[in-house]
Every structure is written in C-alpha cells, then in structure tokens.
Amino acid sequence: MKKIMTLFLAACSFAVLPAESVKASSFGFSEKDATACLQKAIDSGVRKLIVDNTGREWLVGPIRLRSDQEIVFAEGVVVRALPGAFKKRGESMFTAKDASRVTLRGERNAVLMMNKKDYQDTTRYQWSEWRHLISLRGASDVVISGLTLKASGGDGIYVSTGSKTGRCRNVLIDNVTCEDHHRQGISVISAENLLVRNSRFRNTRGTPPQCGVDIEPNTARDYAVNHVFENCEFSGNASAGILLHLAALNADSMPVSITFRNCRSFGNASEGIALYMSSTTPVKGRVLIENCETGSNPGGALVISNQQDAGIQLVIRNTVLDNRSAGQPAVLLNNSGVQGDVGGIRFENVRLIPGKAAPVVFHGMTGVGIRDFTGSLSLQNGNGRITDFDLAKFSAAHPPRPELRNFSVMPVDLKKLRPVDASAAGGDKNSKSRFRGRFRFLQYCPAAGVYPIRFNAVKVTKFPLNLEVRLRDAAGTDLGRFSITEPEKTYLLKANGRNLFSFEINTRGHAVTVNSPHPGQAVRADDWVGMFGGRNHRFYFAVPAGVKEINIDVAGTLREPVSAQLISPGGKVVTEVKMLEGMKRLHHSREKADVSEVWCLKIPYGKEDFKFRVGAPLLPLVSFAPEFLLKQ
Hints:
Elements: H1 2-13, E1 21-23, H2 35-43, E2 48-51, E3 58-60, E4 63-64, E5 69-73, E6 78-81, E7 94-97, E8 100-106, E9 111-113, H3 116-119, E10 134-137, E11 140-145, E12 148-150, E13 155-160, E14 168-174, E15 177-179, E16 184-188, E17 191-197, E18 200-202, E19 211-215, E20 224-230, E21 233-235, E22 242-245, E23 256-261, E24 264-266, E25 273-276, E26 285-290, E27 293-295, E28 302-305, E29 313-317, E30 320-322, E31 331-335, E32 345-353, E33 360-364, E34 373-380, E35 386-388, H4 391-396, E36 418-419, E37 435-445, E38 449-458, E39 467-473, E40 478-484, E41 488-495, E42 499-515, E43 521-524, E44 529-543, E45 549-556, E46 562-567, E47 573-580, E48 583-589, E49 597-614, E50 621-622, E51 630-631
Parallel strand pairs: 1-2, 2-5, 3-6, 4-7, 5-8, 6-9, 7-10, 8-11, 9-12, 10-13, 11-14, 12-15, 13-16, 14-17, 15-18, 16-19, 17-20, 18-21, 19-22, 20-23, 21-24, 22-25, 23-26, 24-27, 25-28, 26-29, 27-30, 28-31, 29-32, 30-32, 31-33, 32-34
Antiparallel strand pairs: 34-35, 36-51, 37-42, 37-43, 38-41, 38-42, 39-40, 39-42, 43-50, 44-49, 45-48, 45-49, 46-47, 46-49
C-alpha cells in the first residue's frame, strides 16, 4: 500500500508548477464584478497566478480553469459568487473541463464561497442541485489544497466525466474544508487515483442526498478506482456522513477500489457510513474501512444494502462503531431488493457500542440469506464490558432458501376481462391510495360513450409535475399519450364500443391517485406496484374455485417500513407483517378451495415507499372495491 501511495502522490505532484508568478489584480480589478478580470488573468496562461488580497472580495460569475496553471489564493482572500449570477441550473463557480496539471492552493484563511440561500429561493432562482463550487469534469493531475469552500448551490467539489475523457485522473485534495453546501460536501462520479486527506466535510443541507461524501457513479462505465480518504472528518450533514452509492455499477464495470482510513463520521442526521450496491449483477472489487470511527448518527453506524456474495469484498478493520445515540440498528444488512445472498463482508477487530437498538439486523427478500459474514466483531456494553458477537450464529439464523425465491405470475388476457358486477353502483372508490413509479390501471367500458377518469397528482420531488400516461386498448393498440402537469386532471376516456383500456402511467418520481366511478377496473399487479405512504389501503382480489394457494409479496424500503395483512372474506386476518423494511411473502392455503371468494390485501401503514405484487395461481389484478373487480 505504501508503494501504491508513493506512486499516487508522484502522479499528483507534477500539477505543482514552476514559480513564475503574476498577481491577478495586474489584469484589472472591479469590486462590483471581477469576473472578466480574473478570467483574463487565467486566460493569460501565466504558470503561477496569485489571486491577491485587494482589501475587497473578488466577486465573480462562472470561471473556466485552464491547463498548466497554479492558482494561489493569498492569505485572507475571499472569492465570492457574484450576487444575481449563476442563473443557469448547471453553472459552477470554478470549472476544469478536460484540463490537466491544474492546482488551486489557498494560503492562510483563503475562502471560496457562493450564496446558497439565494439559490434556494425559488422566487429568484430555478431549482437546481448542480451549482457546484469546484467542478472537475474529465480533469487530470489536479491539486486542491488549503482552501475553505462554502455555501454552494450544489457540491463543494464535484468530480465527474468530461467531453474528451471518461473520468478524472490523479486528483489530490489536501487540507480542504467543505462547509454548508446544498447537496454534498464532495460528489465523486467517475475518477481514477483520487486521494483526499486531512479534510473536513461538514453541515451539508439543502437537497438529497445531503452527505459529507457521496461516491456515486452515474453509469456502469464510470470509475471508482483507487479512491483513498485519509484523516478526514464527515460531520453535521443532513443525511449520511459517508455514502458509497455504487448501484449503477455492475459485473461489466471496472472493479472498484475504495479506502477510508483514519476517518471520523459523527453527528450526521442519518447513517455514519452507508453502502448501496446494484440490484442486478454486482460489481467486483474491494472496499476497506480501516481505523475509522462513527458516533452520534441517529440512523445507525453502518448500513450495507444489496451486498451480494458474488460482488465486492467489504473489509471493516480496527474500527469503532458507536451507536449509543441511534434509534436504528448499529449494523443493518438489507438485501430486500436482490435475489443474491449476503456475502463478502469481513470484520477485523471491530468494536461495536450498541446502545438501545439491536446490534446487527438483517432484512432480505423471501429466500435470501447470509453466506459470507465473518471475522471478529465485539460488543461493548454500558459498563465497558466487551463480549464477542457470534457472526456464525447470526448467519445460521438467516440461511439461504433458494426454493422460496421463485415467483411466477398468471398471464392476463385483456380481451377476456369482464366486470364481476357490471351493474355495480358508481362512485369514486379510491380517494387516498397514492401510486408511485410505473403502473397500469385497467378500465372496462361496456358500450360506446365518454367515461371520466380523475387523476390527483401529489408532488413528491422538487421537479415540476410531469406524469406521463400512455393509453392502449385490449388489443394493445396505442391510442396516444397525455401528461399530468397539474394537481388534478380529468381525462375523458372515449369508447367506440365495448372494450377494455389500459392506462400505462409513469409518475416520474411523484405520486398519483386514480379515481373512477365505473365498474370493471383494476390495477395490474403482475409486476411490483409502487405505493407512496398512507394508512388503511385496501386492495381486493378474486380467488377462483379450484385455487388453494394465495401468494402476495409485500416490500418496504430501508427506513420506510410497511405493515400488511391478508384478510379472508369473513374479515379474519390470516397472516400479516408489521413494520417490514425488507420483503415478505404473505402466503395462505385455503381450507376450502372449491368456492370462489374475494379476499383483501390491507395496508394498515406505509411510511413512504412500499410495493406489492400478486403471484400465481391468482389472477394478478386488484381493485379498490370488491364489486368493481374484473374477472377472466
């Protein structure tokens, strides 16, 4: 490792250029707007540019950095974003795009800052999360040191791809403080050879993820190669201190190599350290957390989501996980979104201080278990007594059950669907069940005419409402599209004769309710049906004569539990789950399978995002009222 680090520092070091220095003010200075002056100084190509202390702040708009240049911010210099500038949503204060051998170095008390509160005022600025302070786009051989970076409209430092190169390379960030940013202290999208040391990432608050650091590739082609964070602090952030969101990477991606050494993550509003992997084929590689410490993170010390035994090797070594102030488990394993078993996790001399919550908890999909969860983990109680946590026993309590993972669905022939009761009285039957994501709503029309369908959209994200709906008939003919851009929209469904229509809805991050007074309607549940919060949802489904087994999968999400009940025609709860964060199959075998019945899936509570699906041999259709059901 020392040899690798030496080579790494050598690669970064040639960004420090010869001492041919010129003061920026020699190119002019305006205390009202110094953008043109500073840009002219940079564009001069001088090898070493001193942004000197004029006794006034340097007020600037977006600045383009160039190759082969060192910029030194003199003692006490403040470079501030020009008030009223940065109107474009993606404008950053300093951008190095496809540049190389660039150094930004601050002398004592040098500060670069933007005006976060201005950008958060939607009466003055269009909402954005991309007004970064320093944006590295495909840059190489970069040094950023000795600077305080404050109050951007995005990230303190953004490290991503450029137009000519697919990643940043050889980036050294040393003795930097990122304070009070809107989205992230630092975001790393794609980089090779990134060393961050002796730095602080504090008090991020504004728009999710709101972490100290977020290593989050956008695509499977991005790089998370040789990232090292040493002697760094992540504190006071509105979400996790350290977030590794590697879900976009897969088995075809470049293997990852990420190390956090001698780092502290404390006082964040959520987790100390969180790792999210792909829900498909996992990326290979290694993540090492060594000589680190977490504490005072209410969301728990360590969250590991979708970590599969065929994926990365995660090693936590010589680390203290202090969970005394948390209401969540200290170590949470969550494989509720994948078919793969948990594996590739090893503790080496790790001490866990649990507090009131359980020390280690596992949530997984039905049949998913733990295969490779090993090493040395000790528990320290309130009196300081230390005992071993039996990892082998914990794993044995959650064995893999491959035979339970199969989930089959009955095919649906739309042409054969008819209402159970065509004469059922009208009236809206769904006024509160909010759907999120992609789903399909079916409506039967018995004759030619106009059938009003009302949609009520609920804004969830900061993006404008723009729900997409595609309409098809029972034969699959595309009948056109429409959008929902206001909180309420009534669509007039025009039928030329008897037919069944399918509304294919994409909520684009928001949520929507569907209200129809017409009998013969259903939501298709052969794929996951996403829901958004609420209480006492009821979905009815038909169990035909001859069908004995009932299988319905229900899934909550991490930190967003759901409770669900399977209710018989007589109103009896035959099976249920409470406050579920993983996935559970609600299964019941009917004693009398020779009769047709209508059963109910009740959702007493969903904190936010949850979902369900209906398996064979049931027809995967649910309705908001038993008399509105469709039958085949």
